[in-house]
UniProtKB/TrEMBL annotation:
InterPro entries registered for this protein in UniProt: Ergot_Alk_Oxidoreductase, NAD(P)-bd_dom, NAD(P)-bd_dom_sf
Organism encoding this protein: Streptomyces gottesmaniae
Lineage of the species this protein comes from: Bacteria, Bacillati, Actinomycetota, Actinomycetes, Kitasatosporales
The protein's name: NAD(P)H-binding protein
Top-level taxon: Bacteria
PANTHER family reported for this sequence: PRESTALK A DIFFERENTIATION PROTEIN A, PTHR43162
Residues in NAD(P)-binding domain copies: 10-176
Any Pfam family the entry gives: NAD_binding_10
Length: 279
């Protein structure tokens, strides 16, 4: 392990926190970038960037959706001596029509990938499918705890990826040679519909859970009725639309390529996370 600290942006998030844990388990020096960290890091305050990057040679970079800040951050990082970056991007960046005009993350990822490729340093790009942890730590959790997940996903399927696997690939790319110039498409070993995923959680917890498919218009109307800004509700609906349109069911080989093993199955994730869904 390098004696220089590895900077992890998004270090308290679903993938970043796991990158931090796995790096520390290997004995690495890790600097967690967050607004409450020391030194403080705020994507929207460029005055904080240099302090976070001081003495760093490798960065796990989780961009901020809706902002084109990856490029100037990478440029600053290279200027300050960073030699390696692992970028968390998104699925479908290179698929025409995957992200609609309403999806704010699309432009962030497109420009971010271009920025790291243009950087002149060693880079690795991760393109994960939907995080399995969205059910236990993220945007679906509240609905599941209430017993009903309502989404405009139709009967489409997604090959959910465990965030532990995303982190494991990131750590390998940060700490080992042989991953430079690689774009790893990451998914689980099988695709599930939302109804199938909910059924597995229901069986594991013994709770009566159900999935209710909505049209995009119904979904947006429900969210705005709950006080969501229209733009945010429409963006959420657009983010889910690749599942409904059958664009998220394919299986990717990135975990196998990077780690030499199969990714964790959704059932393994459910067993490990069952406590999140119990009162």
């Amino acid at each position: 392990m390098t004696k220089h600290p590895i900077l992890v942006t998004g270090g308290t998030g679903k993938s970043g926190s796991r990158v931090v844990s796995q790096l520390r388990a290997q004995g690495a020096s890790v600097r967690v970038a967050s607004r409450s960290g020391e030194p403080q890091f705020d994507w929207l305050d460029r005055a904080t960037w240099d302090f976070a990057l001081e003495g760093v040679k490798a960065v796990y970079l989780v961009p901020i959706d809706g902002e084109l800040l990856t490029r100037p951050f990478i440029e600053r990082a290279v200027h300050l001596g960073v030699e390696r970056v692992v970028l968390l991007s998104g699925r479908g960046v290179d698929v025409p029509g995957y992200s609609g005009e309403a999806n704010i993350a699309g432009a962030t990822h497109v420009d971010g990938e271009s920025a790291v490729r243009d950087s002149g340093i060693t880079w690795t790009i991760l393109r994960p499918a939907w995080f399995a942890q969205n059910f236990s730590e993220g945007i679906f959790l509240g609905a599941i705890l209430a017993g009903e997940l309502r989404l405009p996903a139709g009967d489409g399927a997604a090959s959910f990826i465990d965030a532990e696997d995303i982190a494991a690939v990131a750590v390998a790319a940060l700490a080992e040679d042989g991953h430079g110039g690689q774009t790893y498409e990451l998914s689980g070993p099988r695709a599930l519909t939302i109804a199938e995923a909910i059924a597995e959680i229901s069986q594991a917890t013994g709770r009566d859970l159900r999935y209710v498919p909505l049209s995009p218009e119904e979904f947006v109307a429900e969210l705005t009725g709950q006080g969501w800004p229209s733009a945010e509700a429409e963006d959420y609906a657009e983010a889910v639309s690749p599942i409904r349109r059958g664009m998220d069911s394919y299986i990717s080989d990135g975990v196998q390529r990077a780690l030499g093993r199969q990714p964790r199955d959704f059932s393994d994730y459910v067993k490990a996370s069952v406590g999140a869904w119990r009162d």
